[in-house]
Records
---
Amino acid sequence: MKYKLTGNEAEVYVLQEGAMLTSLIKNGTEYLWQGDSEHWSGQAPVCFPINGVLPNDEGYAFGKKCSMKRHGIARINPFEVKEQFDNSITFIQKSSEKTREQFPFDYILEIKYTLIESTVTTEYTIINTGDEKMPFVIGGHPAFNCPLDNNEVFEDYKVVFDREVTQQALRPNHETGLVDISERFEVMSSKDSINMKHELFEENDAMIFDNIESKCATLIGKNGKGIKIEYQDMDNLLIWSACNNADFVALEPWSGISSCSDETNEIEKKRGMTILEPNCKAEFKFKITMI
């Protein structure tokens, strides 16, 4: 089911299936990628309790076997609507027999979207409802149309950070999704920006800016339209587009990253893991502004 959030500057649509954004519209312009079968059918999936992949889709969390495909289980299991207002909606997912087959922990995941003017805030609340420690990471995966105007092309856009980026990007293996932590890639066009080019994504997949000091990035085109994403609660930002000249750029704030070459199969020891004690909760949020 699709729900509409209304504001005085924009309108936003969200899907109950996957509890994800499906449309961001301002002044008649659709900002969110609408998905296609050629490049990527997704739009803005929620990544929980892993970001990226596990080696061979398997690992162990405090000795308990976990079997999860890319980006985890939240996006492929049901959500219910907990609360709804004109400009906000909250979805809730509770662990079930099905989720425990892949991730053997008890949890509640709440996802709240709030629209104020041209900004959508995404808030994640994770509650450990079990009686043992639970490891997890979480993140968003929103993709944005690029270009936004008919008289622009992909190469008219750049990503500009709010401060100098001092560390070059990691990149996952295009086939396995695993990250070689020993290899970094020169992707910056200047100290604080990256010019968008399709060839950046043809072989090397996403750019991973791990432990990034910048907490705001803007995808902006020559006509001044774009997307600003603010991610104070997240340590990592990924920039991704699909092969074969896809007309989108994903800006992905993650609390962790995909499995790395120097890590074991112990999930609780992977980079960025939050270890949540029983009956405790953790909260993360980020903001998307349509420019």
---
Amino acid sequence: MVSASHVLDRVLVLEMVRVTEAAAVAASRLVGRGDEKAADAAAVEAMRAALNSLDFDGTVVIGEGERDEAPMLFIGEKVGAAQGSGPRIDIALDPLEGTTLTAHGAPNALAVLAIAEEGGLLNAPDVYMDKLAVGPGYPAGIIDLASTPTDNIRAVARAKGVDPAEIMVCVLDRPRHEALIAELRRLGCGIQLIRDGDVSGVIAVTNPETTIDVYMGSGGAPEGVLAAAALRCVGGQFQGRLLFRNDDEKARAARWGVSDLDRIYHLEDLAKGDCIFAATGVTDGSMLGGVKRRRDCITTESVVMRASSGTVRWVKGQHRHEPGMQS
């Protein structure tokens, strides 16, 4: 088990839930309205305000983009009410993971963040990452991104004591995954295709209720760091390898200090030491219910995990006022 951090105080566990709740509730006003940018902007503004109310010295290491691309919660932005004096914390965040899902009123949109001590989260470039993940309870090294999908599925099936046809795999529904999907079909696997939101897809392997055994396929590298933080908290396994489509993306990676372009990143390369992961549902999903606006209150569902304790808490909130607003 990871030793408890002197920086991440226990109180921050529930504070992180309050941050994701604020972002989720703000975004929920735009569910089904068809405006991705407005939904994302609402979540970003609410999350930033909530972070700036906390007594720490935080730095965004995974955010909305580089400073010239994002006016708020950009990579390198300082947040928190104790700059220069409070505990120094790195923050990876996605105020609205699933902007298209939110705009269309589709399932599995989340507000997500992870925090760790300074230097605990990889500052990943905004490129694609090939990802492979399983939840807790498997022998170390059960998955290997250098092996074929078939070999990985067979290894997980053996460890689980079932036939490969009984394994459920989550894959992002994209044309680039046609060959992967065809290979999994030949094995007889069940495949849960998701439209967007690969953070929710990866962290689904942490919860047996989702029935998802393995996550495979490529998605955003920053989202990979967020998902790795969740798996770090529950003892899952994750591997990722950066994918580059052109020289510009390789140059961007070099600016972030990436020298080995073929490196396979393991869980602790992405999220090390003690860390806290929190997520709140915006729309109903496989893990979390979405925000519900009722006549007399707003309800939310969240999950928060901590690596040092291995604790997973499911939090149902009932708010008489908008989270983050003065009552």
---
Amino acid sequence: MDPASIIEQSRKLAETAAGVANQAAQLAGDAAQMSLSSGGNAEGFSFMALFTIFVLACFIGYFVVWSVTPALHSPLMGVTNAISSVIIVGALVAAGPADMNFSKIMGFVAVTLASVNIFGGFIVTQRMLLMFKKKNK
């Protein structure tokens, strides 16, 4: 595979990822608006509806990741690490309330895991870039 086609595929993947991120941001805004209008809880949704959304998201994620060619794996991981920074913002909001409850604990766990993912991604990316550097003798 020549470098030009890899660059073109990376550009297309980045554009697709940006579009998905914009759609996710719009959906998150809509969900937040619905949550605020319903009093801050998920009364409008049954457990089965929320669970169905979760399972569908798992399937979509699985098929998206497995359809990526190995050459595009690193750019995709870079985008997912960027998405983790958005997760941290949401987790900080969840961990913010003064009272100790389940959402605060889960928000703290989300902040911790997303931080590990972000910083680990930076470390792996730096190591990969060092592999492409020319060695000076």
---
Amino acid sequence: MRRIDVMNISMNQIQMFLAVARLGNITNASQYLNVSQSTLSKNIQKLEQELDLILFIREKNRLRLSPAGKVLQRELSNVSVLVENAVIKAHNQQAVQKNPLIIALPMSVTEQEYLFPALNKMCSEYPDFQYFIEYYTFHELPFAVLSDEVDVAFTPLFQDNLVDRMGLNHKVIKYMPLTVTMTSENPLNQKSVIMPADLKFQNFFVLSETLMPEYMEYVINPVCEEGKFNPRIAFYASSTEAMIASIQNDDEIYITDDGCVRPTNPNLCTYPIQGTTSGVIAVWNHSKHKYLQRLLETIE
């Protein structure tokens, strides 16, 4: 691959590429962007030349994203959102508007039980209190805090050792048990109480060790040590959502805590694992937001 100078790529080209990728052809994208079809076509061709990539597969009157194009669409969509929010934040600062508290949450966590009641109370007590919420993967979240992209993050307890090593401030917000999810046909459904030892002969769906080594170290391994067995790993997933979508056989399980998203699939059941503890921690770095500590106190 030849050396690519990404500085030659403009936001205008990114916008054009994303429009064509979403709408599927030059005609619709040119109408949406209010530019001529020739201008749009030339910019797409120029972008492919500059990146040395085939972004679209041409099929008669339709453009289909190539595998490389799909990757670029996904990543540049994130860039576009970051730029848009950066401009909004800059305008807010310039206009001396309210200083919102930026809160980060993992995409797989249900925050309503402990967070939104506290946020509603803050809004009613302090007229100038304002907040925004951003969602990140488990892997991305500590680094968003470290770089001060956000004021505070709420993440599962199993990440406390990681954030401690990163030198970030953190405190436990609440404790909860670990839970196991399985199909309704799993024989474990017949038990009134599920203990770690009951999971010995199950096939485990787990979060990727590459992306999330803390999950194996502080969730899976302690459960299996308590049950006195080694886990049989059947599938490494990138997210809790991927585990929910993939589990289907009556000897497959995944373990999260009680704060994670519950499956909507009626064929999946979730139960607490007796004798286990997980929870939620608040993590922050250099934030001096005047309402941060008050929010943490309100949650308690």
